[in-house]
């Protein structure tokens, strides 16, 4: 039996404690899979004296000096589950440059400055694994990074935030408004006390940047991702979607397409969208995640499961630990970052989208003609029109064909100035051929 592979654990919160528990409970099997024992030699935390119940670990392993722990010569692998940009970036860059492999679940750091981590890994000849950063226990990043390397991926569409999916699923099932559904999600523990990162789409945008980077061999940062949250989605929007045979989901959408001059580019966006009830993602309910991949040779692939939580995330972390530990014992490393394509990022205004626009209008002749004229002015083709109600309840619902998002946005902005349009009740994008 080889000597142990020594781990430094940065963070011991919800995920970190599950990592420790699984390392203890599965020690024999993990030793057999790796070829050597996995040994925790230090755990960096903010409060070493905090009561952690019956966590199976020597209290003497706890330290507040994370950087000192990372620099220790007896550390082979650094496991980071703290989150945030700094000081996590400093710790991980130090480890990687020193040749110590890193396993991280830090989606925010990877989205903000993943290039720096990859460069440090290349410089130090170390592994950088982060399966847990996007979809918890769902095996997703490794298939993109390894299994599909011989294929061309054209589109990745996903539900990658469990909190928002629970809220939208509850609104669809019960007819509740956003605030009511958010209260339920908070009471059940699906939403944080401050849910901003989830409901405003920041969490999903970070994950979208990681997915796009892997899928399209291009460094895509958080700043490259167009983002909208779900706070403006109303019960009326959900009811309107149902009338169309659709449901509303917060989607991350990453596409590779050819520009008008035939050159490929990448578009990455996160926003709520209507999708047909027949779409595979439409049935993904509760706090589950799912990612739909479309590749030229493999066709359509879907990855589904629990995308968050201590145990599911720790499962993905453990999988990465086993992989890097095996590489460490063999004296090898996994393939480095693949960013050779370096495709340009297409601005959101150039992305071709479809809109569902609901207007509260004056109940008089000529309103439809006026509204249609504005769509035509901006070269936006109308797919369907539905009029309902009379008097103060008059409503006009328009679904467009695909057009540049900038043209659709300009159309909506001009509609706001019409005296015959009392209010723009909602504007939602439509995906998946509805």
Binned, the helix content reads: 25-40%
**Morphology call:** elongated
Mean pLDDT: 94
List the quaternary state of the chains.
single chain
State the distance separating the first and last CA atoms: 58 Å
Query: How many strands in all?
Result: 17
Sketch the major β-sheet: 11 strands, mixed
SS element count, helices: 15
Class from helix and strand fractions: alpha/beta
Give the radius of gyration.
24 Å
Catalytic activity: L-homoserine + NADP(+) = L-aspartate 4-semialdehyde + NADPH + H(+); L-homoserine + NAD(+) = L-aspartate 4-semialdehyde + NADH + H(+)
Keywords: Amino-acid biosynthesis, Methionine biosynthesis, NADP, Oxidoreductase, Sodium, Threonine biosynthesis
EC number: 1.1.1.3
Family: Belongs to the homoserine dehydrogenase family.
Condensed summary:
With 434 residues, this protein is α/β, with parallel strands linked by helices. The chain is 37% helix and 26% strand. The longest helix is centred in the C-terminal third of the chain and has 21 residues, at 310-330.
Task: Characterize the structure shown.
By secondary structure, the chain is of the alpha/beta class. It contains 15 helices and 17 strands. The chain has helices at 14-25, 27-34, 66-71, 88-97, 107-124, 132-135, 141-147, 162-174, 178-187, 196-199, 202-216, 235-243, 310-330, 367-377, 405-415; strands spanning 5-10, 38-44, 62-63, 77-80, 101-104, 128-129, 153-159, 226-227, 246-258, 264-276, 288-295, 299-306, 352-361, 382-388, 395-400, 403-404, 421-430. Strand 4, helix 4 and strand 5 (101-104) form a beta-alpha-beta unit. Helix 5 runs parallel beside helix 11 (202-216) and helix 8 crosses helix 9 (178-187). The chain is elongated, with a radius of gyration of 24 Å. It starts with a strand and ends with a strand.
